[in-house]
Amino acid sequence: MKWKSKKLDVLNIGDITSLNNDILSDRTNHYLKLLLFNLRVMFRHNSQSLDDLADFYEYIEDVLSAKIIVDDEELKILIYRITDLIVNIDEYDVVADTVITECVSYLLSSLYLELETYRLVDLYNRDDEYHDYLAVQIKNQVVEFDILVDILKISDDKEVKGRVLEILENNYPLEYARYKARCQYLDY
Is 130:123 a contact under the CB 8 Å cutoff? Predict the structure, then answer.
């Protein structure tokens, strides 16, 4: 394996958490960082066949650090590379590859939302009769999970909180579990 200067210490993730691409949404940044972390976990359990994965890791790192400008074409390349990785993961002959599967599914969903937003903004910048409609569509590209968590935080009504919790637990079980873990709010 040829690493230029990459540490494989999973516990030292300060270099991952400090990365942030201002062009991309918080959700996409989160899943890109999670992918880097999960790749480190996978690297830790493998010592061979990692050159292509290491190059992919560095590509994701460059996207997060804004060394690569993410326009709509680069977004398509990123989606293609991530899809290619997950579809062909068996060819890499590595163990612990399932650790990245869930993260990649959420990341792809977020990247498709980013791509749709790019397209809506391009259409919005043209002055035509659909201008107001497109403005509403761009505004509605907010992730529902974030809105639901905000409602849960600000609401004092027990019935509203109960219904929002039900939606979060039924439709976003893994994201909500991560959110609770991050907030150190685990049920006992």
Answer: yes
For tokens 């569509």, the residue is 137
d(CA 80, CA 121): 22
Calculate mean pLDDT across residues 33-56.
84
Asked if pLDDT for residue 122 goes beyond 70, the answer is no
Cβ contact 35:56 at 8 Å: no
Cβ partners under 8 Å of residue 187, min gap 6: 180
Percentage of residues of the chain with pLDDT beyond 90: 18
| Alpha-carbon gap, residue 95 to 44, rounded angstroms | 10
- Burial (Cβ within 10 Å: 0-12, 13-18, ≥19) of residue 122: exposed
Cα-Cα-Cα-Cα dihedral sign, residues 90, 110, 99, 63: positive
**Long-range contact list for 174-178, CB < 8 A, 24+ apart?**
174/102, 175/106, 175/145, 176/145
Dihedrals φ, ψ of 44, to 5°? -65, -30
pLDDT greater than 60 at residue 8: no
Q: For residue 34, which of 58, 13, 55, 8 has the smallest C-alpha distance? A: 13
